[in-house]
Amino acid sequence: MGTQSTFAARLKWWRERRGYSQLELANAAEVSQRHVSFIEVGRTTPSREMVLRLAAALDLSLRQQNELLLAAGFAPIWRESVLGAPELVAVNRALDFMLAQQEPYAAFVVDRRWNLLRANSGGQNLVAFLTATRPQAPDPARSINLADALLAPDALRPLIVNWREVALHFLRGVRADALADGTTETAALLQRLLGYADVPRISDIPAIDDVPEPVLSIHFTKGETELKVFTTLATLGTPQDVTVQEIRIECFFPADVVTAGVFKAWAQRC
């Protein structure tokens, strides 16, 4: 399959994945339906600008824009840096600031597939409490995947009172990621998580209390200690680097005063 036919097939795949007709994609990209049709059957070779216009209309990530450019025979335009690279010094300062501001509560920096990249002291205290293993510098997050830790039967599952509800919400988030980014890696992550024993089906209906809380809290219990936390997820705005776009900052907040007191007590001992 040649470069043009590869691009044409990939464009059609993304269009159908987004649920667009050729006319809808054409309208979003402000081109004619005829032009989109010709590109998809390989009768028209798109310019680099047209590839980027179609990618924007399809709301593709920077990584997927690069792959679409390659499929059309063009060089990628978006850089993918190592997180510690000099060009990301301002980004790293921002990440460190956010982690520090979250103290004494837990905060983690993760990539798009929930590999843990960085943790603040509160996060390290939480990991140490739950796993009896304290991450060590300079790579405090090595080999930890939060998705596996949450779903695997021999990891955090026995410590989460409302594990089924939490797992269901998390799986739906990973499915949304898989649908959005279209990568084999995220699809493989979803299938791995669904393959764990006794995980809920994504179509299951979550248990609803008579008066549900405004957010679903994760209820940990270990020994005599109980923690109830909810989380927020943040991303970096206006990214122009693949790595920067895929970074997430997950912050844990206490859902009750008892949990807040536990985190503060841990911080005082450090």
Can you walk me through this structure?
The protein is of the alpha+beta class and 270 residues long. The protein folds into 2 domains: 3-71, lambda repressor-like DNA-binding domains (434 Repressor (Amino-terminal Domain), Orthogonal Bundle), CATH 1.10.260; 86-269, Beta-Lactamase, CATH 3.30.450. 48% of the residues lie in helices and 11% in strands. It has helices spanning 3-17, 22-29, 33-40, 48-57, 62-71, 89-102, 121-131, 146-151, 163-181, 184-194, 242-246, 257-269, and strands spanning 107-110, 116-119, 218-222, 225-235, 248-254. Strands 2-1-5-4-3 form a 5-stranded antiparallel beta sheet, with helices on both faces. It is elongated, with a radius of gyration of 22 Å. It starts with a helix and ends with a helix. The relative contact order is 0.13. The model has no long low-confidence stretch (mean pLDDT 92).
Provide the fold topology:
Elements: H1 3-17, H2 22-29, H3 33-40, H4 48-57, H5 62-71, H6 89-102, E1 107-110, E2 116-119, H7 121-131, H8 146-151, H9 163-181, H10 184-194, E3 218-222, E4 225-235, H11 242-246, E5 248-254, H12 257-269
Antiparallel strand pairs: 1-2, 1-5, 3-4, 4-5
